[in-house]
Amino acid sequence: QKEVEQDPGPLSVPEGAIVSLNCTYSNSAFQYFMWYRQYSRKGPELLMYTYSSGNKEDGRFTAQVDKSSKYISLFIRDSQPSDSATYLCAMSPLNAGNMLTFGGGTRLMVKP
Amino acid sequence: GAVVSQHPSRVICKSGTSVKIECRSLDFQATTMFWYRQFPKQSLMLMATSNEGSKATYEQGVEKDKFLINHASLTLSTLTVTSAHPEDSSFYICSVIPGDRAGNTIYFGEGSWLTVV
Q1: Contact (Cβ atoms closer than 8 angstroms) between residue B76 and residue B21
Q2: What is the Cα–Cα distance from A39 to A65, expressed in whole angstroms?
């Protein structure tokens, strides 16, 4: 079993839909949770960064962390074709780049 | 604007030759940089941690003599793929944690596509 599980998709939604992306994990030591967006043939871009449990909102994006269930989510409201990308969740027990564990990524396609 | 710059973004080389990829932090000094590799449709895998002024720390299964890392300054780390083979063809990405920023967000470079023919 992988430490971080993420549905690879692809997830196809119409423009304007609410998108829900999820990751589950097994390591209870994870404290820092991140969501990255990666366009084809580009490096990952940080979207959301949260510490411990709770919700965080930034524009059309909302990140949720439920440590009791070992489950994190990224919601995208009013999805746009420009949101079409692969979304990677990442988590770490400490804020250290050499301890990041990535999910496999979910490919999202928003159709106009 | 970009926080981390990688060069080249794309390189094709012949089997048996060596290729150098640069990673620069643009807005801050970075005593530590990280190198990842990503195969198509797979997630990022950490290869090594690059430490300024000292030897890099390699992850299990990564050959240190094949993937040479030099972190000669606080803003530059280089990854050299030596005696490249077609199976080394991959997307190589560096990342940096700015040491002086609250929250210590991890920033990634744009990545470098390596194709070995």
Answers
A1: no
A2: 24
The answer to whether A103 faces chain B, any CB pair under 8 Å, is yes
Backbone angles phi, psi at B35, to 5 degrees: -115, 130
Flag whether residue A25 sits within 8 Å of chain B, measured between CB atoms. no
Mark yes or no for CB contact A98/B57 under 8 Å: yes
Contact between chains at A46 and B44 (C-beta distance less than 8 A)? no
Taking an 8 Å cut-off on Cβ atoms, the answer to whether B106 and A43 are in contact is: no
pLDDT in tens, B5-51: 999 999 999 999 999 999 999 988 888 889 999 988 788 899 999 88
A103 burial via Cβ count (<10 Å: 0-12, 13-18, 19+): buried
The amino acid present at A95, given as its one-letter code, is N
In 3-state terms chain B splits into helix, strand, coil percentages (rounded to 5) of: 5, 50, 50
